[in-house]
Amino acid sequence: MSNLIIFAVLMVLGYGFGQYNEQRHYKSIKKREALLSTLPAVATKYPPGDERHRQTMVMGSVVVASDYFKSFVASLVNVFGGRVRSFEPLLDRGRREAMLRLKQEASEQGASMVFNIKYETSRIGGKVPTIEVLAYGTALTPLHSPSTHGEQLSQQV
């Protein structure tokens, strides 16, 4: 009987801490998404417009682990079959965090947009389900005309 009580207490603690961490992560994601909302990231294959840009590959990756409670619920669903809803927020957080990291890298390069966005997701083995999400794309950074670039260099010297 004591083993059952210990198990129940651990499950409740796992659920509580997991929910707290997930909500804290979502708040952070929403705040950073608002800050980076002016940098467009699109899935189109070809860059828009006729302007000359420097094109560089940018990426963002994240590794996210599930909490024990969600893993337990998912194992029950695996026995009976059906949609594993407990892991959907895990994937959502992973995709959004990877995109934020990609946009942050593009922003640091002075990019005006990112196109040809792709995602890769892989499962990392172990007892606790862990995923890696990689977002990558091509950042477009406007090229400066030679005269403007030269003026900037002379101002720096």
Textual characterization of the structure:
The protein is of the alpha+beta class. It has a single domain, classed as Hypothetical protein apc22750. Chain B (Translation Initiation Factor IF3). Helix content is 50%, strand content 24%. It is elongated and about 75 Å long. The protein starts with a helix and ends with a helix. The C terminus is likely disordered.
Mean pLDDT: 83
Taken together, the total number of domains comes to 1
Radius of gyration: 22 Å
Total strands: 3
Low-confidence stretches: 145-157
Largest sheet, strands/sense/barrel: 3 strands, antiparallel
Give the percentage of residues in beta strands: 15-25%
- Reported CATH architecture: 2-Layer Sandwich
Q: Please state the oligomeric state of the protein chains shown.
A: single chain
Please bin the fraction of helical residues.
Answer: 40-55%
Instruction: Give the termini distance in whole angstroms.
Output: 77 Å
Q: Count of DSSP helices?
A: 4
Shape: elongated
CATH class: Alpha Beta
CATH topology: Translation Initiation Factor IF3
The CATH superfamily is identified as: Hypothetical protein apc22750. Chain B
Strand arrangement within the widest β-sheet reads: 1-3-2
Order of secondary-structure elements: HEHHEEH
